[in-house]
Every structure is written in structure tokens, then in C-alpha cells.
Amino acid sequence: MSLSDLQKTKDALSALDAEIAAQRERFEASIAELLDQKRRLERELADGLRAELASLGDTVTGVAGRARATASRARGRIDEERIIAALRQRSPIGAQHIADHIEAAANGISSAALSSKLRDMVERGLLVKQGQRRGTKYSVGPRA
Predict the structure, then answer these.
(1) Would you state the pLDDT for residue 16?
(2) 129-134 LR contacts (CB < 8 Å, sep 24+)
(3) Mean pLDDT across the chain, nearest whole number?
(4) How far apart are CA 141 and CA 127, in angstroms?
(5) How do residues 46-92 score in pLDDT, each as one tens digit?
(6) What is this structure's pTM?
(7) b/e string for 98-137 if b means 16 or more Cβ within 10 A?
(8) Is the dihedral of CA 58, 60, 61, 65 positive or negative?
């Protein structure tokens, strides 16, 4: 390749770089415009939804909101007395047997929540823990 051919190639590269920069600038401007349009529509939708909810007033949030809150508090509540009753019937027993006795799955109680409750009850002296991991058994504690 001659020196003049190299210069032509260099000039062609410069022209392509300039064209790429121009195209990129137009593309970015177009994207910015589309993003602005999207934000405007999102604000319009949010304002419309707020207005619609406000027109419904307390009939939705007042009654249904309180009912949902009460149901969610009742669901997932772990009754310590039922745990102690299960342990008084048969002791020591594992966490799975306790979960079955208090119908944990039907009441929306996760195994993690039950484990946390059992750990809390052990710390307060309501239960006594024997063993580790899968071999852990619980019995009624001195403060129950």
C-alpha cells in the first residue's frame, strides 16, 4: 500500500467516525425524546389513577383496607399455647410435629417463622431445646 492509499484510508476512517458521531447524536436525541414522552405518560397515568382512587373515597380503603389488615394479622400468628399443648401431649417432639399440630401450613406460617418463634420461646424459658439441626427436639420448659 502506498502512502497516498494510506492517507485515503485514514480519510475514509475519519469520515466514518464523523458519520457515526452524527448518527449517534441523532439516535440519542431520539431516545431522549421518547423517554420524555414516556415520563409524561407515566405521570398522566399516575395522576389519573390517584384521581380515580380519590373519587372512590373511603369506601374502598376504609372497609376493605381494614378487613385485609385484620386478616393478614390473624393469618400467620403463631399461638404459643397451642405449641405448649402439643408438647404436653407428647414430648419431646421436633419442629415438624409442632407445625403439624398447630396446622402451620393451613394458617400461613412458614417454617422460618415457626423456627423463630420456637427459638424465642426457648430463650424465654417456655421451651427446652435438645439436640441440633434435624435432630432438634423441644419439650415444655420451666416457665410454661
Answers:
(1) 94
(2) 130/92, 134/94
(3) 83
(4) 4
(5) 988 988 888 887 554 555 555 444 444 444 578 888 888 888 988 89
(6) 0.47
(7) bbebbebeeeebeeeebeebbeebeeeebbbbeeeeeeee
(8) positive
Q: Decide: 128 and 93 in contact? Cβ < 8 Å.
A: no
On the question of pLDDT at 98 being above 50, the answer is yes
What 30-38 contacts at long range (C-beta under 8 Å, 24+ apart), as own/partner pairs, is: none
| pLDDT at site 69 | 47
Indicate the DSSP class of residue 61.
I
H or E element in which residue 71 lies: helix 65-74
Tell which wins on pLDDT, 131 or 66: 131
Which three cell numbers mark 65? Answer: 383496607
CA distance 143 to 87: 14
- Omega of the bond leading into 142 within 30 degrees of 0 (cis): no
Return d(Cα 124, Cα 121) in angstroms, integer: 5
Q: Which 3 state secondary structure label does DSSP give 92?
A: coil
Residue whose grid cell is 382512587: 53
115 near 103, Cβ under 8 Å? no
Question: How many Å apart are CA 131 and CA 92, to the nearest integer?
Answer: 11
